[in-house]
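User: Sequence in, structure out. Go.
Assistant: Echoing your sequence, followed by the structure tokens.
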Amino acid sequence: MNRLLLSISPAAMALSFATPLAAQSAVGHASRIGSCDPRVDVCGLPPGGGALHYINTSGSFRLGCNILVGPGQSGIAIGPNASSVVLDGEGFSILGHPSHTSVSGIVWPSALTVRGGLIVGDVTIDDFSDAGISVSNVQSVRVRHDRHSNALYGMRFTDCGSVQVEGASFSQCGTGIDSSSVDSLEVSGCVLIGNATAASVCGHSSRFKDVVVQGGSDGIVWDDSCFSPGSMQPFALQCSDVRIEDVLQTGFVVNGTAARSRWIEELARIQVRGSGLDGISINVAGPNELFLSDSSSSNNGGVGLKVTNPSPGHVVLIGHDFSTNHNGGHGVEIGSVGDVAMSMVGGSSSHNGGDGVDANVVQKIEMVFKTVRIESNAGGGGTVFGGGVEVQASDSSFSHNGARGLQVSGGAGGPGGGGGASVMLASSILRGNGTDGCDLDFSSSLSGGKVSVSNFQFTSNTGHGLALHNASATLHAGECSSNGSHGLQGQLSDIKCNLLTCQSNGGDGFSLADSSADLVDCSSLGNSGHGLNAIDVTTSSAWTITVQDSRSSGNGGLGMRAVGSCHVRIDDSVIAENIVGGLLCSSSGNLQKQINVQKCTLDSNGGTACEIQYARGGIVEQCVVSNSPTGIHVGDSSGGGHCTGLRVSNNVVSSCNTGIQVLTGGSHVVVRNTVSSALAAYSVGTGHLFGPLVTSANIATDSSPHANYAP
């Protein structure tokens, strides 16, 4: 029958609409005379309710003909005496006038009482100015295998109970499916192509499964404007196996305008691609939980996933294998007045025009990245700001982004209780980013931030490998290498490092400003600047620099430099082959601190191997110094004598132009040292306790336990 319909010429079609409607219906009915089907043929029903055919009793009906509807009329109307209707279209069509002036295909208008049910199947409804099917106040509606192309709505459901739409297709409609104040909507196996809005939905429970949306303006739009606050149920929106492609505006929109105690959305196996604006946009007021799994939002003109919450309340986002790639804006964008907990497990956010993940939360944000790739974004990889921030990243990559690989800041506290800051990174790579690999800035927090980093790589970034500001950090088993600036940069921080290598960086290996550091089994190798550079900028507080069992070699500056009011302790470490010099310690002013250097090896450094300019007490003891212009130098080079009370003892110095030089002033103790192969073994000014000098000439007769040797 459909093939016959499609073969009608335009002239014949115009003629058929010119034929009196009653005659058309009679012809259709006559074609089924003799049928044994007990169902009532709608084609034999008289007009009524503004429609060509009027159903005014409950029962089972079938469509035995194509219905051609004239201007100003509907095809089938269901009256108030019908409480339950089943209509089988049997593949026939209900067609509006070619001028698009017919009203609706099937209409069951609003009533004061709720009707029982409506089932419609296997019918094509086209060319109506209002809706293909329009139903109000019906407890149960089921539509199967329909085809719609109408001016305003493919189907419209208002104030209904349960609505099921299965296997239907909608094309070139204003809105494919419109659902308002519906308790339960299920849309499955449907195709919506070229509609201005594919689906506009407001309901307690809405489910989409096996749905394809292509073209048109908006994809699926869900909101809660038709319900009073607090009336929503958990899992208000569930979608699975939904594909939305090439819409002009936003692919998937969720608007939760009313605050409520709790509501949940669940999206599984969703693909949103090629939207002109954002891929998925979620705006919630108050608490919400959103689950995304095995899904993607990619190649959209705006943001891949945008989540906003303009009011206080806790929002939970959980993404498993969720990807946002090749979007014009951020991959994921989160903006909230409330607090947010987000977890990304698997998946990726890469090649986006903005950041991979951008989160700005007034109160508190908790972010978890696990086995996630955030790479090659024009902006940063991950950018997280919050009144309180907690970030965990493991087995993830933040690499080749235009700005920072990972940036975290905040912890100052916000309205409703933000406060606090912590970051934990494990087994992750931050490589090749346009500025810093990782920037953790808690300068706005009075209490600072707690940082734990292990088994990491911060390499080949244009800026610093890792930058810390106002942080208490523990770093274990990692590397900050081949970065354009410093490997590790710390400011106003307390840093503990174990098994950390900073190598081949364009600046210092370790660069510390107003910071304490405890380095154990660490290496600073081949950096363009200093191996370790600790500077007291404010001179208002004392910081402690402790280095143990570590190595600083082949750097373009000094091996280690500590300037300002720093306590310095360096034990059992190697400082070798640095171009400018080995070790320089220079505290100053009224904040001079102890300098302790012991059991270290200082070899082949370009200037002075060990230089202590300013100190108040301390030792240089049991060190092996060789192959430098000056071995050990003590005292203010300007002659101020600000270095006091240092003991230089039990050191072995060889192959230096000057072995041990101690300037006048400061009451130092120089005992039990050995200098060999030097042009000037000792140069010790007045006012010090200097042990007897033993040379080859008097070594047989001088037995002082405090002697200094110059063989």
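User: And one key feature?
Assistant: The CA atoms of residues 20 and 70 lie 9 Å apart.
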